[in-house]
Design a protein that fits this description.
Blueprint (H helix, E strand, L loop, with lengths): L1 E5 L4 H12 L3 E6 L8 H9 L4 E4 L5 H11 L3 E4 L6 H6 L1 H21 L4 E7 L10 E2 L12 H19 L4 E7 L1 E3 L18 H9 L6 E4 L11 E2 L1 E3 H12 L5 E7 L5 E2 H12 L5 E4 L8 E4 L2 H7 L7 H19 L1
Parallel strand pairs: 1-2, 1-4, 2-3, 4-5, 5-7, 6-15, 7-12, 8-11, 9-14, 10-15
Antiparallel strand pairs: 10-13
The structure holds nicotinamide-adenine-dinucleotide and uridine-5'-diphosphate-4-deoxy-4-fluoro-alpha-D-galactose.
Length: 336
């Protein structure tokens, strides 16, 4: 089976590329490198022995996208490509709607024209909106209380994919709703670039650990959680990558939706403690005001993925911290 990964040089795409190659799949990568580096391809080769064929193409360029799909003879597309910085999406909504939705429509049109009818889409727990403190299951309502354009694009793309399968019953769509990916490959060669735009917890912890930021601001310690800080379902990125491999063999017509999470929530303070334990160093932090739009506790019910895909997260937050620290050491060496 030949698979195209859009956004495959990015954080989750690169880890998935490694797991797909290890499972014997032939893969190619399309990315515009707006949020990733071409050197990731060498790192994938270092880990797997295979350097995937790469196209530096922007999905907003319909002609260039069409050329890749027409020549590729792909059986499946895994669609990671998209902008993901929640805060930036509030400032620049049109950039997000244009890139994420426009790019997806170009991709789907090219797929249709070339009879490529299987797609796995990177969605997000954000589609569950403001449902707080309950184990989220796939059949729960989506789309209510989404507070930013980034989240809206995920909700809208899920809907677009549903409509495409209604119009063409031979289309096979798998929607994977990721919870909070953290960690890095155990080799320490690939991971989340701390110089990314998003203001997510782990890249900020990494910047503080590297001395590039003075301290972590913990957004709120007065939530209704055991230690008062927000809680999330942090999933090791390698487990997440393996979820894609598991999903491939179970694809069928129509839309299938799976949560990819651990089913456990860890607090922000718990993450600080886990980082300190793994690094043996104190992580400077201060308690700050709550961040607008944040919820107290978001976590997955991953039972459907286990039941139907035979997939379950096996790594822990401590594993993620160990691998992040290894990646950080390599990153510091490579970037001075
Ligand atoms: P990432 O930014 O590391 O990877 C996305 C890749 O897509 C980047 O390499 C970027 O250069 C590329 N890209 C963006 N727009 C493009 C375009 N128009 N044409 C071609 N390439 C383009 O992000 P990630 O964390 O690996 O996320 C992958 C996917 O998973 C995204 O769709 C993201 O929204 C989704 N997701 C991520 C998280 C998370 O916390 N990381 C959570 C839920 C869902
Ligand atoms: N946090 C801090 N300080 C920081 C950054 C984050 O205390 O500097 C806290 C947040 O308040 C929250 C937790 O850490 O309680 C996690 O925040 P992130 O920004 O890392 O992640 P979110 O859960 O807010 O959102 C992430 C992605 C979304 C995705 C969602 C899925 O950013 O794209 O997970 O649940 F949709």
């Amino acid at each position: 089976m030949k698979i195209l990964l859009t956004g495959g040089t990015g954080y989750i795409g690169s880890h998935t590329a490694v797991e797909l190659i290890k499972s014997g799949y032939e893969i190619e990568i399309l990315d515009n490198l707006s949020n990733s580096k071409i050197t990731v391809l060498d790192d994938i080769e270092r880990i797997t022995g295979v350097k995937p064929k790469f196209y530096q193409v922007d999905l907003m360029d319909a002609e260039a996208t069409e050329a890749v799909i027409t020549n590729g003879s792909y059986d499946l597309v895994i669609h990671f490509a998209g902008l993901k910085a929640v805060g930036e999406s509030v400032e620049k909504p049109l950039k997000y709607y244009k890139n994420n939705i426009g790019g997806t429509i170009n991709l789907l049109e090219s797929m249709q024209r070339n009879n490529v009818k299987k797609i796995i889409f990177s969605s997000s727990a954000t589609v569950y909106g403001d449902q707080d403190g309950v184990k989220l299951t796939e059949e729960m309502q989506t789309g209510i209380g989404i507070t930013n354009p980034y989240g809206q694009t995920k909700f809208m793309i899920e809907q677009i994919l549903r409509d495409v399968t209604v119009a063409d019953s031979t289309f096979e769509v798998t929607v994977l709703r990721y919870f909070n990916p953290v960690g890095a490959h155990q080799s320490g060669l690939i991971g989340e670039d701390p110089n990314d735009i998003p203001n997510n917890l782990m890249p900020i912890i990494m910047k503080v650990a590297m001395g590039e930021m003075k301290e972590l601001s913990i957004y709120g310690d007065d939530y209704d959680t055991p230690d008062g800080t927000g809680m999330r379902d942090f999933i090791h990125v390698v487990d997440l990558a393996k979820g894609h491999v598991a999903a491939i063999s179970k694809m069928g017509s129509g839309v299938s939706v799976y949560n990819l999470g651990t089913g456990e929530a860890t607090s922000v303070m718990g993450m600080v403690k886990a980082f300190e334990k793994a690094s043996g160093e104190k992580l400077p932090y201060k308690i700050a005001a709550r961040r607008a739009g944040d919820l107290a506790k978001i976590y997955a019910d991953p039972a459907k993925a286990e039941r139907e895909l035979g997939w379950k997260a096996g790594l822990t937050v401590d594993d993620a911290m160990r691998d992040t620290i290894k990646y950080l050491e390599n990153y510091k060496k490579a970037n001075g």
